[in-house]
Amino acid sequence: MDTPTFQGVDLHQIAERLGTPFHLYDAQVLQNRIDDILAVTSAPGVQARYAMKACSAKRVLECMRANGIWIDAVSGNEVLQARASGYPLGGDPPQVLLTTDVFRDNALEVASDDGVLPNLGSPRMVQQLAATGYQGPIALRLNPGFGHGHVQACDTGGPSSKHGIWYEEALAVSQEADRQGLSTVLLHAHVGSGPELQEFLTNMQRLVDFFASRLSAYPHLQAVNLGGGIPHAYRPEAAAIDLKPFGDLLRQAQERFSHLAGRPMRVEIEPGRYLVAPAACVVTRITDIKRTATNEKGTGQTFVMVDAGFNDLLRPAMYGSFHHISVWQAPAEARLEPIVLAGPLCESGDVFTRDGDGLIQPRPLPPVQCGDLVLIHDAGAYGVAMGSNYNSLGRAPQVWVEDGSPYLMSRRETYEDMMRMECFAAL
Asked: Quick one: CATH architecture of 277-419?
């Protein structure tokens, strides 16, 4: 079951203790998704990595580690978070991969000093890494010339994508790396989910063919990473996703790559969104209900105002993404009314009920009143991870529910937390 129910949990009591909004995780839903991924990576030589940018909460990372899922990190600090959650850095094979197009902050230091496998997405990163004195294995992220994310704004591959080294330049980059003492042991690409499962599978097969035609040019290669992108059905009426065909594709790819290379090859995938999206909700409280009237500019709306904003869940404002919305303990037989769910930020875009073009799209909800709790579902991926203290609002706390018991994962960010980094000092 991929929809949290939180049966036996008193959300009103949690809301009274912590305030609203807060992020609420269901441990069983997360475990169910982990089990899905373990099922499709059960063949010998197939390995899953968790793309931790989706949600880097320590408890989530600990669950991934306990289930043998490795890590794909995209910053030096994410690597350090993985280490703090029990992942070893270094080792063969490497359990932590650092994938980035630019070395920023401590990323170069972590890549050169801490034994993590650096996955380089831009050509000049080879020289930057070699200049530190690093001598060792690297991975290369390629732009294969095709790909499509779950919405148009997510361009994950092709001429308009910023990610990776253009495939026609990749071999020259690898040869330069060899001259610098850096051997390419892993090739990587991410082509995205596309809007439908079949498009994802088609792109995955195309990516397998892409790598199969290039294996012989990389004599030190040990693994191929096919990226993430497994779709998640955000709409409750959508059919369940059958991942068995994907598991078959991975097994066949591993066998094909090993045959072509003449040695055992590892195939990796790195889902993030699929693993954690359904595992968490944003719990928010209704603070007011107000209405506008129809006039020459447009149709009047009923605005249900809540205390969560796009600083807590950015995806609807950023992508026009759909998130299922429910009212906690609303009667099942209640008559539905079209409402617009809007937040507290001083921004017109702070509206959760939008369509794919970013336009307001009222959502049918049961009658509500001030004080009711509203759940914004499927917020486990890129909810907390994209959170901010915009408008100087504190980041919301995180609550973990396991076997009916709630646990505080992180507290609410305070004014003092935000001001702690402020300074004025001569440089």
From this structure: Beta Barrel (2.40)
